[in-house]
Design goal:
- This protein has helices at residues 11-21, 28-35, 53-70, 89-109, 162-170, 174-189; strands at residues 39-44, 76-81, 129-131, 134-141, 156-161.
- With 226 residues, the chain is α+β, with helices and mostly antiparallel strands.
- It has a five-stranded mixed sheet, with helices on both faces.
- Helix 3 (53-70) links the parallel strand 1 and strand 2.
Amino acid sequence: MRHISYDNEHPLARSFIANVQQPSFPCVGAKSALSRGRMDILVARDLTSAWDDLRILPALTTTVAKYRREREIFRTMVVLFEGPGELSEEQFEQHLWARAQSLSDKDAWVGNRPDPSVSSDPEDPHFSLSFAGEAFFVVGLHPRASRPARRFETPAMVFNLHDQFEVLRTQQRYEKLRTSILDRDVALAGSVNPMLARHGELSEARQYSGRAVGDGWKCPFHRADA
């Protein structure tokens, strides 16, 4: 397994960790990953640039390797971008998908196939992004997000292994975890997130950026080897 140098001691990473540790932060999964030492953080330069993609992709591959070796849930990888901080929700969504496309293209170029347990078609209700042969659910955060739970001082992409959700379902823990997150999010925002849906009901691509999108929204992503 390739050695990856993470940035968990970087000031931006420390700020993110402090944000997760806030009592009001709704994602108890992130809290669990942090408390168990399974949250790896990379600090990248710019969401709008491919400059650090060749650091991010190997880190995702390492995340997959760690998970396959240990099969311990609540493992996540966080990429914090130093900027730009003034993006609108639409601009953030555009650049989040540009990064996802670039990383996916590189993943296909090195010969990795998509996770066969999910679809690579963003219109499919069973869609997930795949890296190193494992499906990921991506959570985007940025300063101008409309949902409080999706706000952070700089743009961020949080990569959660999809298989963890399936393990939680098998253990009959998924619904309890999901309900806890939803209740905490409502307490923070004062309303239910209109974009939330279970995997297999609607494409999760609609949830990645955190922006509320209508029925006519089309995801710009295309897996090169799908």
